[in-house]
């Protein structure tokens, strides 16, 4: 697996920079000229100007989703700290632009609203997906309609009204993988949106495999410390305009302090992903041999075939099915934090049927292939022996 982490080449403009270097420096190119080391934190809600005509023209541009990097006017239109995070994330994903939101669900909502507004309200969604994403898509709350399909069936579910294909790879919570390039080719010209929350651009860059956009719950690995909530979409400038239009009028903006924390989190993303993935791979191997575990879900475990050259390593999430009482296991851990969410420096464990995917009804969960005895573990930076000791005692 370590060899694969050396796969650091990038399709973006500054191709000479490895992902590790990019993660540290992205969005900071002007700091030395500004005489700063850390990025400035801009908490302004409004931006003064004595030129009303220029303000009106800029507001027209923001209403159309254009952002030329000039004065923001009002923090719902733009914010300089949030822009830095957006620039950095776009550099890491290899996209023209990125647009940040208050949460991952706000980001997905904006994507759906933009497609509905474009007159393409039908979505083909590859299950499984995060429970609330599944619920949002199934409810049609935002004027969309959704056909759920497997990755194989997805192309045949596309109709003239289809404006989007949504897929998570690896998927929440079963870690199933879909071939992005294959899906994008088969569904073209319909844009494919890859939720890249589990892999992060440190391990997987879906735009290089034909995806039109990636979506993140930035709350997870991008922030990395369980103390900041946000969402972000990396995409073309054209689609970013549609998203900014939605964001400007609906107001689901990322708070500047959250933008600052997320930008800071990016610097350590590759090193965190590497260390946490190594721990996850080891725990997955050990769980496979545990008598209280009937099945382990981890990309590439036990020689399972995977989409070629898509993801550098298996990531830091593990899911496993237990022979005993799944909720009881959550109550029995002592070191691992029993909590929903993922991607933090501390390990988190939860029971999808009770929490992350509880909002789905049992039939939808079954259709998505989410067993009731499934446990999801987000592996943090603790020593793997300590984590194993905790899991082992909890499984007894
Ligand atoms: C999860 O735990 O899957 C969330 O996104 C909250």
Commentary on this structure:
By secondary structure, the chain is α/β, with parallel strands linked by helices. It contains 16 helices and 12 strands. The chain has helices at residues 2-5, 19-25, 31-34, 52-63, 80-93, 104-117, 131-139, 154-157, 180-187, 200-203, 237-250, 256-267, 269-288, 326-332, 362-367, 384-395; strands spanning 97-101, 122-126, 145-149, 162-168, 192-195, 213-217, 231-235, 293-297, 317-322, 337-338, 348-350, 374-378. The strands form 2 sheets. It has a 7-stranded mixed β-sheet, sandwiched between helices. A 5-stranded mixed β-sheet has the order 8-9-12-11-10, with helices on one face. Helix 6 packs across helix 11. The protein starts with a helix and ends with a helix. Mean pLDDT is 95; it is low at 1-16. Pyruvic acid is lined by residues 130, 172, 217, 340-342, 356.
Summarize the structure.
The protein has 396 residues and is α/β, with parallel strands linked by helices. It is built from 16 helices and 12 strands. Strand 5, helix 10 and strand 6 (213-217) form a beta-alpha-beta unit.
Secondary-structure map with pairings?
Blueprint: H1 2-5, H2 19-25, H3 31-34, H4 52-63, H5 80-93, E1 97-101, H6 104-117, E2 122-126, H7 131-139, E3 145-149, H8 154-157, E4 162-168, H9 180-187, E5 192-195, H10 200-203, E6 213-217, E7 231-235, H11 237-250, H12 256-267, H13 269-288, E8 293-297, E9 317-322, H14 326-332, E10 337-338, E11 348-350, H15 362-367, E12 374-378, H16 384-395
Parallel strand pairs: 2-3, 2-4, 4-5, 5-6, 10-11
Antiparallel strand pairs: 1-7, 6-7, 8-9, 9-12, 11-12
Bound molecules: pyruvic acid.
